[in-house]
What we know:
Rieske Iron-sulfur Protein; 47% strand; globular
Amino acid sequence: MVHVVRIDVCAADELPPGARRIVEADGRSIGVFNVDGDLFALRNICPHQGAALCLGTVRGTMIPSDPYEYVYGHEGRVLRCPWHGWEFDLETGEKLFDVSERARVKTYPASVEAGRVGVDV
Ligand code: FES
């Protein structure tokens, strides 16, 4: 049986769209992001060399396109590691695009209950 613990992050109005919070709880550091009202929570450790990933920038990225075409997309849905620039999908934790070295960040369900943001770990 899987034991789920809810970590209290903050009041919902303390995490408006565009904001992030990093919480230390239960031996973990977790970043919680509000992107246009959607909440995402990720482990705050980069699978590359262990940087505090959730201190990175939230942005978009270049998406696959035809040769000589440069298409920018996924605005606000990509987390870029502050050390070497690996990019991760905020929703899935998957490393983007370079499939030669697969990596994934642990993600957690985040939600608002009774006016409080929480993460289930
Ligand atoms: S530690 Fe994150 S990309 Fe290197």
